[in-house]
Amino acid sequence: MDRRRFLARAAVAAAAGIAGPFAGVACAGDKGGAVRVQGYGPLRPVRDKRDGEVRLHLPDGFAYRSFNEAGSAFPDGSTVPGRHDGMAAFAGPRDTAYLVRNHEVGGPVGAFGDKDKAYDPMAGGGTVTLQVTRRGEVLKAAPSLNGTMLNCSGGPMPWKAWVSCEETVNGPDVGDDHSGGDNSKLTRRHGYIFEVPVTGAATARPIRSAGRFAHESAAFDPGSGALYLTEDCFSFPSGFYRYLPPEHPLKAGRLLDGGKLQMLAVKGSPREDLSAGQRHGASYATAWVDIDEPDPRFTGRPSNDEAVQAVGRQGRAKGAAIFSRLEGAIHHQGTVYFVSTQGGATAPGDTAPSGFGKGRGQVWAYETWSGRLRLVYESPRSTVLDLPDNVTASPRGTLVLCEDGDGDNFLRGLTRHGELFDFCRMEPVAGDPGAEFAGSTFGPGGHTLYVNVQSTHGMSFAIWGPWQRGAF
């Protein structure tokens, strides 16, 4: 056991915990209680079934295969882009799965795939749809949305679609972002969400009423028909949103434009700063404020920093709550769980990350039926949980957290009983110290966990093994 994992286990046992299950009422971080840490056992290096290389460390009994790496070819001869990110799995024929996967490619680098079908032929992001077996063998692969930009995460929809989110407001009407790309080369405005059907190509029509901001994830509530959206502003406050379409999507069969965008606020406490460290048992009654101009049109080509805050400032002017870097979100049994990557307090001895927010991560739960917001977990220090990003739920309700930390990156499980455990560790990617886990999603029946490593040399993985032995 290396020093990082030893410290992580010791810190969890001594300083972190959650009381009660997630089901029904989400629970709040208990920094003073003890918690029993259970998992699938110690991690060991495991060779990739594809080529024998060690890329992941897993518990005994688990195996994996990597597939569809950046730079490989689609059947049409075009090239798989890099920066594999958010992803969802849908049931396919004959015990296979359809995967719809984002690619977080920025800059005016040109669209992959067929440029005639691109939303913006100069933008290099989008989605790829694959049909794969439980063991990661690729049967089909093709671009399904192209010409979008910085497609970070999104969310699966029950009418067999994926909503892909652009984490940017780039466009010819906005100043260049900090990556150094030339926005004047772009032909369309970006910062929207797009619906991608599981089979077939997307229409590449943005849902403009759902806002033009740095979208991250989308979580659909089938009861109300609302789509909950997270925002990841690296250097500025972020908000938690919901989009109310003009017709229930389960009735319409798709997500319609023309609805209302709202932002979450804490009742009786305008502009409540939830990015800071939270008290034990933190829980808030909430309300929603309307965004009057969800799709702002800019004149005079404002700076990117100004443009990325245009929607959020409207909500905060009406009292909306402040979060730090909201990233992954998932709907599970009437509750939307979402991650604040840099939320919380800076622990003694830790270094505060750059950007807005000085903690090492929070997990929040919004109860759609009660309107109650509760803290599920707050990282006590980086050796326990380091900048969680994407999140999904296992068939048994355990949350799977993808880390985006400074050192070793893990897939960690957060059980319904408050146990945090290590499930998978990434072998460092040569030449890319910023590589991170992204897009975790369980396939049909829960037999396989599909996940991506986001990197310039990114790829996808299928992981299988004795799930019944632990919390997943």
Automatic annotation (TrEMBL):
Keywords: Signal. The keyword NADP does not apply. The keyword Signal applies. InterPro entries: PhoX, TAT_signal. Residues 1-28 form the signal peptide. It comes from the Bacteria. Transmembrane segments: none annotated. It holds the Pfam family PhoX. This is DUF839 domain-containing protein. It comes from Nonomuraea montanisoli. The lineage of its organism: Bacteria, Bacillati, Actinomycetota, Actinomycetes, Streptosporangiales.
